[in-house]
Amino acid sequence: xxxxxxxxxxxxYPQALLSPAELEARLQQIGRERYHSRHPxxxxxxxxxxxxxxxxxxxLNRYYYQSRIPLKDATLLSxxxxxxxxxxxxxRIEEHDGWPAADGRPANEGGIERWLxxxxxxxxxxxxxxxxxxxxxxxxxxxxxxIRFVREKSLLEAVASSLTELFAPKIHEERIxxxxxxxxxxxxxxxxxxxxxxxxxxxxxxxxLAYVTREARTREQQEQVLAAxxxxxxxxxxxxxxxxxxxxxxxxxxxxxxxxxxxxxWQGMGSGGG
Amino acid sequence: xxxxxxxxxxxxYPQALLSPAELEARLQQIGRERYHSRHPxxxxxxxxxxxxxxxxxxxLNRYYYQSRIPLKDATLLSxxxxxxxxxxxxxRIEEHDGWPAADGRPANEGGIERWLxxxxxxxxxxxxxxxxxxxxxxxxxxxxxxIRFVREKSLLEAVASSLTELFAPKIHEERIxxxxxxxxxxxxxxxxxxxxxxxxxxxxxxxxLAYVTREARTREQQEQVLAAxxxxxxxxxxxxxxxxxxxxxxxxxxxxxxxxxxxxxWQGMGSGGG
Lengths: 274, 274
Prior knowledge:
2 copies of one chain form a homodimer. Helix content of chain A is 62%, strand content 0%. Chain A has 274 residues and is an all-alpha fold. Chain A is globular and about 55 Å long. At the A-B interface, helix 3 and helix 4 of A face helix 3 and helix 4 of B.
């Protein structure tokens, strides 16, 4: 096709609107290039090559991310005057915070509680974890940047930043298999958080993907969507960089952050949370 | 008791901590002096002395308040790192936004939908109401001030500002009786919003009152609680002042705001929301 007859849209000109399939392909490409499943720390974790203190540091810092997700989602709710979107988005808060049994619906302890079960299983004190003392400052900064993004960017970008869930089921499957194979603390009860996310995340992301596909009506908005997902991969990656630096190599723990104590070999631990 | 032997707390010195009973008594006093049940517009409404356009204006403007309550409550959630408080507070969003039937729990259309049923019953177009076109600017300003208060003040003050619910059951009872007696649009279906609030509000306020009684640990904090409730009564009162000015006396509708059309007598309307 010569330049004269090229139809700008199909020719992929910078301003041409992407088709839904093209948009999703770009999102998947971001996942392949930037999702934290590629991070060396995760390879060590899933391969059974982290000692007790290193896993504790991961669980402790990741708790902060998990525990702030409902605040991030409430931030999105608080700026959303679309009742249907609010109803859908509220589910994310419910899944993390849980609910009591009521009106015939069984109780759900919630993802944060499930994470605390994991924390206790790896030998951390629940109150210490909840206090967020011992957190790496970089964890706090990354999570706060995510919440700020959701508060300050457009609603479209706020929704889009959740789309790293597109890539989550694969990492959860790897993690479940890797933890069960390599670590004595891992069993059905202690890794319930990841099991549950396997069924929740695809539902959430289906809604989010449909939303951004529908609401990004210009190429500029589509680029904002892609940038939001890249931003989010940065938020996730930065947390692992900080863990790796502090606890793996060069293993320089910043002042005030968690310092592992006691035996670091798994062999001496018994069945952990078993 | 002489000044020398007086115990500052029981003597009611400015800085003495109030007992729970004293704190609640002060709250009730604010209700008696400042709650919008005393406003002339409500007396006209409940006494059957408002015409069709005046009731429409009330329903239209009050919709904005109702519809922003979930955003206000999500704002509170978004700054609350206490999971137990979030779980409790989320109920308010659920009640207003509703939920679908799931896991054996029956659906709830939600308070906003119930309000829209009322809006249609008084002859308003649902889409026009939802668009918030025709709103009195003072309604918007008052509601925005409430949300800003919940975002910017302390969490204690944000919770406290909900405590006007202490006074709500009485006004809802008056309203239910008054509407049913005087207006052809009023029936079980169209006033379902108020009926439901009769059972919801006491549960909500019981939690809120226990929270502020427990968390206000200094007299200064107790005074902040009282000031928050006074602020909230201002938010409610200002909305009725604006309605009264625009639609009752002197009946000067601001530029761009809703202007009633058609017959204003109820007699010609039939049974309204039927």
